[in-house]
Amino acid sequence: MTEQTRQPEYPVNPIFIDRWSPRAFTGETISEQDLLTIIEAGRWAPSAFNAQPWRFIYARAGTPAWDALFATLNAFNQSWAQRASALIVIVSANRSQPPGAAEPKPNGTHEFDTGAAWGYLALQTTLLGWHAHGMTGFDKELARTSLGVPEGYTVQAAVAIGRRSEDKSFLAEALQSREAPSPRLPVKAIAAEGRFGFEG
Ligand SMILES: Cc1cc2nc3c(=O)[nH]c(=O)nc-3n(C[C@H](O)[C@H](O)[C@H](O)COP(=O)(O)O)c2cc1C
Fold first, then answer.
1. Is the dihedral of CA 74, 76, 79, 84 positive or negative?
2. What is the phi-psi region of residue 3: left when phi exceeds 0, alpha when psi lies from -120 to 50, beta otherwise?
């Protein structure tokens, strides 16, 4: 990726720069093998007490499971995600049983840890030549009921997985011009030595 918006200040592995969130997808079929490889990466994320609070509910386009996941997306996200190859709804377990505890307790890091799993999953998606696009523009309550998510789990986010298309013509015009990798804040604006205080 050579775009000026994606110049790292320090020499990170290119995978971090190459991962971005397109909306123009080809609509091609993704194999269950690829999709489960993507989810496998999420499985290896770190979590407090190794509680592994993440859960992934997935559907590939054209399968019976697709409609229920797709129906949870808002109209904006449906407009482009209709050409995704798979959807994933990510939920997290609110409670876990720490070592030595007699029963499950509220897990204060279930959201933090599940976010890490999403990050791993997104990077593996890029490594396989696909793209992952996270979404909170979906109906979490509908997802809870239609996907059978029980009490004690929080519906966190949805993800569209697709193969990027050079053809943006089916996107709304406003989205066509936004179909490019985005920049980031400078390192000095997000990192400070020893004490909170950031430039810019
Ligand atoms: C949790 C989360 C929710 C998001 N929700 C949406 C969404 O509902 N619709 C959408 O088009 N993009 C959504 N995005 C994509 C972000 O806008 C995008 O990741 C951000 O602008 C950074 O761009 P990049 O992923 O291309 O680097 C979401 C991303 C994340 C991580």
1. negative
2. beta
Q: Which of 69, 64, 37, 93 is nearest to 160 (CA)?
A: 69
Pocket test for ligand 1, best of 21, 23, 54, 121 (most atoms within 8 A of CB): 21
Please answer whether residues 106 and 53 qualify as being in contact, where contact means their C-beta atoms are separated by less than 8 angstroms. no
Distance (Å) from CA 102 to ligand 1 centroid: 39
**Which amino acid would we find at residue 105?**
K
Instruction: Name the residue at shortest CA distance from atom 18 of ligand 1.
Output: 21
Encode pLDDT of 145-173 as tens digits: 999 999 999 999 999 999 999 999 999 99
CATH of domain 24-164: 3.40.109.10
Residues in the chain: 200
Helix (H) or strand (E) holding 174: helix 173-177
Please say whether the dihedral angle defined by the alpha carbons of residues 135, 156, 37 and 7, taken in this order, is positive or negative: positive
pLDDT tens-digit map of 27-42:
999 999 999 999 999 9
| C-alpha neighbours within 13 Å on the C-beta side of residue 42 | 27
